[in-house]
Amino acid sequence: MLIKKDKRSLYSIPVFSFFNKRFVSIILKFFGIIHIIVLVFFVYMAVALDKGEIKTLIHSVAQQTYWFGKMLTNLPIKWSNNISSNHSVLNISIAPKDYQLLMTLKDAAVKKEVYLLREYKRRFPVVVTYNDDKFDARIRLKGDSVNQHQNDSKFSVRITLNNDTFLGMKAFSLQHPKRRSYMSSFLLHKFTEKENLLTKRFNLVPVAINGKYMGIYNYEEVVDHNMTESLTGVNNIVVVWHDDEQFADFSKTKTGEQEVHSKIVSDYYHHSRLVTQSFNEVMRDTILKKDFERASKLLNGFRNGNFTASEIFDIDKLALWLAMTDLFGSYHGAFFNNVKLVYDRDLDRFYPLVWDAFSENAWASLGFHKYNMFKLNWIYRPIAESNVSLERITKQMVSDQKVMERYLAKLDEITQPGYIDNVVESTKSEIDDYMSKLRLDYPEFKMEDEINRIKDNAYYLRHTYLYPDFPFNAYLSGDDNLDSLILVNRKPVPIKIISLLNTTTDNQFVAKGTDAGFILRNNIPGLPGTPTKVFFECPTKGCFDTENIEDMRIVAKVLGTNKNTSVKINNWVAY
Length: 575
Hints:
- This protein is an alpha+beta fold.
- 42% of the residues lie in helices and 19% in strands.
- It is built from 21 helices and 20 strands.
- It has a seven-stranded mixed beta barrel with strand order 1-2-3-4-5-7-6. Strands 14, 15, 16, 18 and 19 form a five-stranded antiparallel sheet that branches.
- It is globular, with a radius of gyration of 30 Å.
């Protein structure tokens, strides 16, 4: 009789049986460790953080996990892109002992967790090679915040050429693309160029140091009179707030609360020195020095309240800068210590340069702060908040009604449907070239995501602030006058009250005392709305009687915009 042996699985063989048990044990231990880590994480959040901090931490972890996963899954594409790339590499040759000292300065600053003060910005001679061309130059560490600029394999540096220019630049910075939010700052520059506002040279370049490939960096031109001369033919100076004293103070603080206190007490906006970029060159030139002294008087007069914005700025260029930085949510570049002002000696006026679209966003364009997008929503924050000093320059700018109206008109123009697509289409070749370089290190990013973000911004700005459904509330005045109403602005934008309309008869009655319309002042976020009494030339008896009020509408529009809206009147006394 034939006896068949029992069939056994592969893992029933002694060797594989041992492997199977060991493998399962390892997997169980791994997930057990993960479980403990997650448990400790949630216990820490529950004990140490409040609800707001928990929400922020969870969002940050989720965002970083998402982009880390995207990075891993795109590694094969990254390797393929680098192999097939034909982009020229910028190589920085530096003597070994100088490079070692440069790294010692970098590591010392990171270890001390201080701001990058002057003692860490020693310059070293280098040779920059690009497309077989060689340039003698000097290099130093760059940036104010060590954690943002130096605590990374792609640390930030400033390169100044000795007797030549690189791609037209006398001096430029190299930094991690995340410091400029990868795609956002590039598009901000392209959009601004299309509006004919002067912009610095800004793009991507593969970088190597002493032949070691470091990856893709943003290069960013240093804005000074050399830049303005090379781009316009006129060497107009660029004026900035000197922030060395500010960061020297910050380096002495031990807590975030102390730094906030330093900002409030020292008031760096009003008390920091005004200087120019490439200051020593300017002071050695008779004409440029005279320009600087004139520019200093104008700007000091402005920040002290002796001049209005329309008296010292080119209003059209200022309005474009205000509107375009709103569209991109680039509030970081609107802080006074990041504002770069070109002084036009022929017009005796200033105009700002767009700086960056950075928004504390290290991973993608998706993490921008909506609440810091529209300037009129955040520049009026209470004095106790940490950035109040940083925001004062924009607050002073829009306090001028001429500037405010031109700014909102420009924002109306650039948030119109179709505007973004038109600019993108006209710059398609430049965008494609930029993205081909960005994908060498970051194939996970798509320009479509950034364009959609900007479109979302445009929709938000347009429908929430420029054309809101309910811009203000209107009530009966509550006194014996039959020709007045109480209006309460709901929005941080000024509203032009055009007329009172009887929808039954189509009769319109203008606000008394003005032919151009009454301006309802903007509401300041965080403060109660101010009830404002407005009188109308209404010859009809009992204009605001209960039986007539249903037919009455207030015709108005946000200052600077093109389309009117009509607001219904509430038939009761509220104030």
